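This section describes the prediction task in plain terms. A model, or a person checking by hand, is given the sequence of a single protein chain and must write out its three-dimensional structure as a string of C-alpha cells. No templates, partner chains or ligands are provided. The sample shown here is typical of the held-out split.
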Amino acid sequence: MHHTTRTHGLLRCLTAIAGISSIPTTWAAKSEDSIGLLYANDRDGPWYVPRAEFDAFLTNHPNATGNYPIPGPNISAPAAPSSLGNQSSVDGWSWSIVVSADMPLVNASYKPDDDGEGPFYYTGGKVTFNAPESLLGPGGNLTVDDGWQVCIFTWQINDFPYSDKLRSDDGTCTSVLSDECIADMKSEALSATVKGQCSCPIMSKIPSCERLGDVAKVFNNNCIGEFRTARSLRLWEGGKLETGAYGDAEAHHLGNNTGYDNIGSLAFPALVSFWNANTTNGILDDSLTSLSCVRAADAVEGSTAPGDAESGGIQLRTGLAGTGIVLALCMLML
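The expected answer:
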C-alpha cells in the first residue's frame, strides 16, 4: 500500500511536468461515500492548528481555487422598481474557494500517532462570499442602504452521503438538480428572505426537487440559513464573509494525494437571496437570488486541480520554469 501511494504521487508529478491532461485520476474517494471534515472556528483551524497559521498558509500556498460570479444588487442605494429593469444590480458579487493540498500539522494541539514515516499534513480549504469592491467605503466596510437584507443558505456535507456528480459540477448545481427544481428553490428562498426568517428550502416539500430522488440527496442534509440586515452587512471586513473553513479528517504524508483528490474536489452548495424591505411594488423578483455549487476547479501554477475517477479532470497550470523544482520533489517521494 505504501508503494502504491508513492507511485500515485510520482505519476501526478510526472504528469504535471509533461503536460499530459488526458490521464484520468483513479485514486479518489469511493462514489457516494460519506465525507469526513474537520471545521475551523474563530480561534482554531482543523486539527486545532492556530487559526492565524491556517489562514496564512491558505493565502500563501494555494493549490486550487474557484470563483463563481452571481447576480447581486447595488446595496449602497435603494432598490430600483422592477419596471425600470432592475437597475439595482451590480457586478462583483461572487463565491470563492481556495484549497491547499499539504498543510503542515505544525503547532497543532492534536496529531496522529507517529508511524515513523515523516511529518503529517492535511488538505484544507475555505469558502467565502464576496461583495463588490465598488461598494466598499473609505474604511473598507460596505456601504449599505438601510432597506437591504439577505438570506445566505449553506448545506453541511460532513458525515453525509455525497454525490460524486457534484465533483464535476460547473458551479450551477445542474449536475444533480433540474432547472425547474432550482427555480422552485430560489422562489422558496426569496419568500423566506422577504419574511426575514431564512428558513431553508425543504426538498421533500418541493415536488420538482423530490422527483430527482437520490441524485439530489446532498440537499436533504442539514441546511443553515443566516439572515443578514443592513447593519450586519456593514460589519463584513473587506466586504467578505467566510461561510466555511475546513480540513481533511485524515492526515497524510507528503506525496499522498488521496486527501487532495477527495476533499479538494468537493463542491459546496450555497444559495443567496437579496431583498429590499422598502420595496413597495409587491412583485417578488428572484433575479437577485442564486444557487451555486462552489468547488476548486482551477489549479494554480505548478499544481494540478483535485480530480476524481468520474470527472477525470486534471487541469494543469505548470510552467517550464518550475519543471526542475517539480522533478526534484518527485524524486524526494521515492
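For orientation: The chain has two domains: 1-19+318-334, 30-317.
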